[in-house]
Design goal:
The two termini are 21 Å apart. It is built from five helices and five strands, in the order E-H-E-H-E-H-E-H-H-E. Helix 2 links the parallel strand 2 and strand 3. It has 140 residues and is an alpha/beta fold. 51% of the residues lie in helices and 20% in strands. Helix 3 packs parallel to helix 5. It has one domain: Rossmann fold (3-Layer(aba) Sandwich).
């Protein structure tokens, strides 16, 4: 455990806390850290192809900037951060990425939502804890 670390990173406050915890853990035990962002699928029904291309370009630029900033934070702490963006539904995409790359630990940020919100939408954190093939560290 704690040999191959992955942070689920979307730029939220919870994800920032998970990233910082991952950086500290990677620095202390001397391993590289990986961060992955999940880009939700593009809309199925766009008015034009140009609209789809514009949305895709915007998402690509957003994630590129987000991960550059995360890499800079890690580098300032002496940690190498490897980054990737994967498409799909966040839980399924993360579980698939963990399987494909053999991570033994996933760090995720906790986002406090209301009980009603969790009943309606479900909890990404809870779904990852149940579905992940590796240890999941939930950072508050």
């Amino acid at each position: 455990m704690f040999r191959k670390l992955l942070v689920a990173y979307d730029g939220s406050d919870g994800a920032d806390r998970a990233l910082r915890a991952g950086i500290e853990l990677a620095r202390v035990i001397g391993v590289d850290l990986h961060a992955v962002s999940v880009e939700e699928e593009l809309p199925r029904y766009a008015a034009t192809l140009d609209e789809l291309e514009e949305v895709k370009a915007h998402k690509d630029a957003y994630f590129a900037q987000l991960l550059r900033e995360a890499e800079a934070v890690a580098r300032a702490e002496g940690v190498t951060l490897h980054t990737a963006v994967v498409p799909g539904h966040e839980v399924r995409a993360l579980v698939d990425y963990i399987h494909q790359h053999g991570f033994d630990t996933l760090l995720i940020g906790f986002h406090g939502h209301s009980a009603i919100s969790e009943r309606i939408r479900g909890s990404t954190t809870g779904s990852l804890v149940l579905s992940s093939p590796c240890t999941v560290v939930v950072v508050k």
